[in-house]
Amino acid sequence: MSTVFITGTSKGLGKGFATYFLQEGNQVLGFSRTEDTELTAHPNFKQNNIDLEDFDAIEQVVEKALEGITELDLVILNAGVLGEIKSMVDADISNMKNVMDVNLWSNKVVLDTLFKKGIKVKQVVGISSGASINGNKGWSGYSISKAAFNMMIKLYAAEHQETHFTALAPGLIDTGMQDYLCEKVNHEEFPSMQRLQDARGTQAMPNGKEAGKMIAKLIPSLLNTPNGSYQDVRKL
Ligand SMILES: NC(=O)c1ccc[n+]([C@@H]2O[C@H](COP(=O)([O-])OP(=O)(O)OC[C@H]3O[C@@H](n4cnc5c(N)ncnc54)[C@H](OP(=O)(O)O)[C@@H]3O)[C@@H](O)[C@H]2O)c1
């Protein structure tokens, strides 16, 4: 039985990943602020309550979750927040800092805790976004956080060659993030939202469970890509 470490398992893509890996007979360590009862009912799922904005608590929660564990086959750094869609001139720095804390710095604390504890990690997949390279109007703090995350993954790969790292854009997934993007953002002011609305309800935007399964099946093939590289599931 393999052990898979996944952040952001309470809903969306992270729940999809957890569901797939449990179905495949693995043990899943899940991390989020809220719990999903479908997952917590599974004997091989271990829920770890964590607030990724609270850096001081992360180390303690991760260390406790790893008691008795020396190896992890896969770490998926999936938890993320969107923040506000706003032009750069209107974007509030405190909101952008919060997005950076969750999407970037919390992942540093998680990785440092694993490596300092001497856990042997075979593969790390950091869930990035096409927004990390697109630079479309309005994506402000989210794009900046994911671009920095791509580089952080590359830097860790340079320092931990025994572990394979990828920053992976997962494509469009119909989750809570899309509720905000498709329903609450002004599409005239931010034209890139139209592509999302057009994709919603079609195969171009699977739900969390469908996407989790499809992407999880691609994860072994990432081992054949350059360590630390940015990849997009739509191009694999
Ligand atoms: N949906 C898309 O189309 C899309 C596209 C490109 C990239 N992505 C990326 O895919 C990943 C998953 O996104 P999603 O669409 O599945 O989002 P989602 O449905 O909003 O789920 C986000 C997950 O992150 C967790 N999370 C957020 N803030 C947290 C915090 N402070 N502490 C602990 N956990 C926290 C949430 O758990 P709690 O709220 O329970 O804490 C939840 O489990 C993200 O990195 C996102 O940037 C998504």
Automatic annotation (TrEMBL):
A molecular-function term among this protein's GO annotations: oxidoreductase activity, acting on the CH-OH group of donors, NAD or NADP as acceptor
Tree of life domain: Bacteria
Gene3D superfamilies to which the protein is assigned, alphabetical: NAD(P)-binding Rossmann-like Domain
Pfam families: adh_short
Coiled coil: none
PANTHER family: SHORT CHAIN DEHYDROGENASE, SHORT-CHAIN DEHYDROGENASE/REDUCTASE SDR
Name of the protein described by the UniProt record: SDR family NAD(P)-dependent oxidoreductase
Source organism of this protein record: Flammeovirga aprica JL-4
